Amino acid sequence: MNFTLFYIAFLFLSLIYRQMRRSATSRNKEEKGVIYSKSIYPIQFILYMVLFIGCAIEYLLFRRRVNLAICSTGFIMYFFGIFNREWVIKSLGKYWSHYIEIKKDHRLIKEGPYRYVRHPHLLCLLIEMTGLALIPNSYYSLLLIWLIYLPITLWRIYLEEKALIEKFGKEYIEYKKEVYALLPLNFIKGVLAKGRDYR
Fold first, then answer.
1. Which tens digit of pLDDT belongs to each residue from 60-103?
2. Fewer Cβ neighbours under 10 Å: the N or C end of the chain?
3. Which CATH number fits domain 33-197: 1.20.120.1630, 2.40.50.100, 3.40.50.2000, 3.90.180.10?
4. Prediction pTM value
């Protein structure tokens, strides 16, 4: 099968999935909470779509020979990001929101993916977007993802943590000391320490 046709079908299915996921989460809103920094999510969403389209345009313009190893790595990263984002949404349950939203009865979730990183959803998005650029070998788009989308992600983390500290105070500050924002370093250290114990 022609890679271009396969890639276009993949993009189309990805957009359908995204739209279905957005519709499902907006329908499941029980009670509205307080939304902080309302503009950050629309900025993230627009950037995601621009970079999503940018990957495709770069592939169609440059017509590079696709390196299958890099393409396969991209697919693995993309689906890893998607499946783990579903885990994040399930773990948060009624507290899940695209926005920085704090509900009246909000509790600090430290289970599931939140045992490993404080912002697993944002990590999943970065992994997913990196995968999207690697699938068609769109290296300029990959560079833009890390130069533009990563700083916006870090800004969102800053805003989100301000809201969480305001809500949870010392509890969140203690959680920050235990778990890293985007990298599961404590988990990796634990695995390495266990490995050393077995020697």
1. 999 889 999 999 999 999 999 999 999 999 999 999 999 999 99
2. C
3. 1.20.120.1630
4. 0.89
